[in-house]
Give the backbone structure.
Amino acid sequence: MKKISMKTTVIAVAVIAVAIIVSVIVATSAPAVLRVATTTSLYDTELWDALEPIFEQRYDVALQITAKGTGMALELGKNGDVDVVTVHDPLQEAAFIAGGYAVEAEGYNGTARVPWAYNYFIVIGPETDSAGISGLTPEEAFQKIQQEGEADPETVKFVSRGDNSGTHGKEKAVWTAAGYNYTTDIQGTGATAGWYLEAGSSMGATLVMANEKIAYTLTDKGTFLAYQGDLDLVTLVDTGDIMLNVYTVIICKNGSNPEMAQNLVTFLRAPEIQALIAGFGVPQYGEPLFYPYDPEICQ
Amino acid sequence: MTEIWHGLTKAIELIISLDPEVMEIAGRSLRISATSCLLASLICLPLGSLIHSHHFRGKRALINIIQTLFSVPTVVIGLFVFVLFSRAGPLGELGILFTPTTMVIGQMILITPLLLGLTISALSGVSKEIVDTATSLGASGFQTILLVLREARYAVLAAVIMGFGRAISEVGCALMVGGNIRGATRIITTAISLEASKGELELAIALGIILLFLALIINIVLNRLQQR
């Protein structure tokens, strides 16, 4: 083997050094970046695809959006891996703010949690509705599913997100309101009996699984409408105050771009963006996927 | 940094306390991957010997294709199996999507090219003289194949270990066709992906360490067997 000469080595080292310096310069001189972790429903419905270009153009910033369940989105926020989060789980949001990880947004009465849109959760299931929940209240429907599921786990099944997402949080709240201890009666007994399945997946994947298993599930209305074309499942329960689903935006204390994060809060509550949200999806699905902020409803 | 440290201590804690859920998940991982690896070996070792010992047109091309399939993405296999077994798919009647059975099928398809290709190259390492001697001593074709497999057993075992490693470490296919259902199709890799997405980073790290630990034990056992 030929020995590598001193000259070759020097040149190689110089080339590598230049490459590193250039990439560092390129990385630091890139336009400003705002990192956002969003709940999957806002992403899977393509609402962010509509909002992103408008925001980027208005504020000359690159939005980097990652779609995660509320649990992971807040975890990213805690660690400062993102600058701002858009989520939908009141309990986890409260814990995040109590933990000191949030910054109060300016102009919203000193609150760190700024609601900017809402819709409703719905219970969907097979058209045959083997547990007979159609038209019941959410709590009654869940009781019916639990009873029928225990009696005949082959026919009546419920697929849960099971991933600490906002939707999972809501599901737990409904089980509790229906009089169950979620951990023992549902996660424990129900899973053993075989009617309660924890998918541990995103909303879209959970809808697909419910469809395959001919099962019931709880979903936000927006994601369901966006996936409806591929599913045989139908809406069975869509009323009840407990089904309210409020989307909020929270600035993360450990984030690196607080001014731009504040801009995003202002942006999401701006009248023209609120109007865009109100009309989003109407041409495609015949009804809105999300409703704009309403102080009477969004607490 | 603290998260990695906590993950490590948590892993030790979970292993020592024999946490029932973790043990169940680890056991399922092991069972599914061992089954798929065993079934794939039963197909690939004889088939690989056949391909190796026969000369035919397009053999080189076939081996090229097999080797190309080493790098087939796990999600592509997952997608294929999903479409096949989905209720709307050709085998949807069976109703086995989101069960361990489909996961075994997926992993088998995934590692078959790897096992086949590595078996063929393992056998190519056996000196031609051995084959010639055996044939001249009157060994039948089948006996010759057995002899060559025996000669190449270390390399063949290494191929099986590789196949098992790819099966137990993959997540894309298991997630798509297994569905990560708690208590039914959740395995270590899909559990890691879930715990990370829940923000439970420590538990995710702990599960990762347990997976590596399992792989270490299996390698030690197989290496012991090899040295006999």
